[in-house]
Specification:
The chain has 371 residues and is α/β, with parallel strands linked by helices. The protein has one domain: TIM Barrel (Alpha-Beta Barrel), CATH 3.20.20.70. The protein contains 15 helices and ten strands. The chain has a four-stranded mixed sheet, covered by helices on one side. A three-stranded parallel sheet has the order 2-3-4, covered by helices on one side. The chain has a three-stranded parallel sheet with strand order 5-6-7. The two termini are 26 Å apart. 48% of the residues are buried. Bound molecules: ligand V47 and iron/sulfur cluster (SF4).
Length: 371
C-alpha cells in the first residue's frame, strides 16, 4: 500500500488528497490551496483519480466541423482577435447559401456535429439564425447542431423581443440541439468590466444556460484563463458552475481556454506556461466533480498539450474539425489549419495510454477502440 503521508508533507494538501481519494467534494478554500501550493505531479495524480472514477481510461473524440457565420460584432472584447469592423478586408458575413455549402462538403461522409459560433451581428435576429438551423436540419437531419454562445443568444433573443424561455423554445423547434460553452470568460464582475465590459453579464450567461437546461437543451461551459485573473477568480468561476450543475445537471463538458495574445489589445499580458495549463486542467477536474467531461480543445492547445493533458484530468479532445475554424489561429493558437483524421486522433490517444472512444454530441459511444 502507498502511504500518502510519506509523499505529501504539507498537512493541508494531505487532508485535501484524502478527501479526493474518499470521493468527497473539496471546498473553494481547498481548491485555492491546490492552485497555490500543489505541484504538478500531485495534481496529476489526484486529477487522474477523479478522471478514472468518472471516465475510466476512455478518451473521447467526435467527427465534427465548424461554421463561423460572421466576424462582425457589436461588442469589442479586449482579448478578441476574431472580430473585424464591417469594411475590413478580413471581415466576413456568410449567407445561408454559403453556410449550407459548407454542410454539403460533407455529403457522403460520416459526420456527427456542426458547431456554429460567431460574432454578434447587429442585424441578425433569432429567426435569421433559426432559418439557418432549419435549412441545415432539412438538408442533413441526423446532424447534431450545437450552436450560439450565450452572448449571441442574449442578443438575438432580445432583438426579436422574446423572453429567454420563449427564445430558446423557438430555437429548439427550429432544430437547435445543444449550446456550446463560449462567452463565459471569467465570471468575476470586476475582471469582466475590464476585459469584456459590453457583453452579457455573468448572471445572464448563467441564466441562459439554466433556462436551456430546463428546456432540455444541454450545454458546455468554458473559462478563459491566463490573463489578469487570479486563482480566486478561477475558483469563483468554477464554483458558480458547480452550483448550477447541482441544480440542473445540464452541462456535458467544461473547456478551459488559455488566453492567446496575438492580434488583440491585451498582448502585453503575455501567456501562461504549459505547466500552468496542465495544473489548471487538473484543478478543474478535481473541483468540477459534477461535470462529467473535461475537454482539451486541441486547435487551441496544440496536439501535444492536448495529448499530455489526458494525464492531467481531461477525457475529451473535441474532434476532427476539418479545417473549418479560424477563431483561435487568429489569436495565435498553435494550429493554423486545424484538422485531424480519426486515425490520427486514435493514435494520439493510444500513445498516451488511453482508450479512444468515438462519441456523438451527447457522449453516447459510437466506436470503442482497443486500448
Ligand atoms: O468565449 C476568444 C475564447 C471562446 C480568445 O462548447 C479566446 O465545445 C483564447 O466557446 N484567446 C469561444 N480564447 C469558443 C468556445 C468553444 C471552443 C471550443 C469548444 C467549445 C464547446 C466552445 O473563445 C470565447 C472566448 O472565451 N476566446 N478570444 C483568445 N484571444
Ligand atoms: Fe464579439 Fe465574441 Fe469577439 Fe467579444 S469575443 S468581440 S463577443 S466575437
Amino acid at each position: 500500500m502507498i502511504n500518502p503521508e510519506k509523499y505529501i508533507s504539507d498537512p493541508a494538501l494531505l487532508k485535501i488528497a484524502e478527501k479526493i481519494t474518499d470521493e468527497k467534494r473539496i471546498t473553494p478554500e481547498e481548491g485555492l490551496t491546490l492552485y497555490q501550493n500543489a505541484g504538478l505531479p500531485l495534481l496529476g495524480l489526484l486529477a487522474g483519480i477523479v478522471r478514472r472514477r468518472i471516465n475510466g481510461e476512455n478518451a473521447f473524440f467526435i467527427r465534427n466541423f465548424h461554421i463561423e457565420p460572421t466576424n462582425r460584432c457589436i461588442y469589442n472584447c479586449r482579448f478578441c482577435s476574431y472580430r473585424k469592423p464591417p469594411k475590413h478586408p478580413e471581415s466576413w458575413d456568410l449567407s445561408h447559401e454559403q453556410m449550407l455549402e459548407t454542410v454539403k462538403r460533407f455529403d457522403g461522409r460520416q459526420i456527427e456535429e456542426v458547431h456554429i459560433v460567431g460574432g454578434v451581428h447587429p442585424e441578425h435576429d433569432l429567426h435569421y439564425y433559426g432559418e439557418l438551423i432549419r435549412q441545415i436540419k432539412q438538408y442533413r437531419p441526423g446532424l447534431h447542431i450545437k450552436a450560439f454562445s450565450a452572448i449571441e443568444l442574449d442578443y438575438m433573443i432580445r432583438k426579436s423581443g422574446y423572453s429567454l424561455e420563449e427564445g430558446l423554445g423557438i430555437l429548439k423547434d427550429y432544430g437547435l440541439d445543444s449550446i456550446p460553452g463560449g462567452g463565459a470568460e471569467i465570471f468575476d464582475e470586476q475582471i469582466r468590466k475590464i476585459i469584456c465590459p459590453e457583453k452579457a453579464s455573468s448572471d445572464m450567461w448563467l441564466r441562459i444556460h439554466e433556462t436551456a437546461h430546463l428546456a432540455g437543451i444541454p450545454s458546455n461551459a468554458t473559462m478563459l484563463y491566463g490573463h489578469m485573473e487570479t486563482y480566486s477568480h478561477r475558483i469563483d468561476h468554477m464554483e458558480r458552475l458547480r452550483l448550477l450543475q447541482d441544480k440542473t445537471q445540464g452541462f456535458n463538458a467544461f473547456i478551459p481556454l488559455k488566453y492567446k495574445r496575438e492580434n488583440n489589445p491585451m498582448s502585453h499580458l503575455g501567456e501562461v506556461s504549459m505547466i500552468e495549463d496542465l495544473r489548471n486542467y487538473a484543478v478543474s477536474r478535481i473541483y468540477l466533480d459534477n461535470i462529467p467531461h473535461l475537454k482539451a480543445y486541441w486547435p487551441m492547445t496544440g496536439k501535444e498539450v492536448a495529448q499530455l493533458s489526458l494525464s492531467f484530468g481531461t477525457d475529451d479532445l473535441d474532434g476532427t474539425i476539418e479545417d473549418t475554424t479560424r477563431i483561435y489561429s487568429m489569436a495565435g493558437a498553435g494550429e493554423k489549419n486545424p484538422a485531424m483524421t480519426t486515425e490520427e486522433i486514435c493514435k494520439l490517444i493510444n500513445d498516451a495510454g488511453f482508450r479512444p472512444v468515438e462519441r456523438d454530441s451527447l457522449y453516447n459511444f459510437i466506436t470503442t477502440f482497443a486500448l
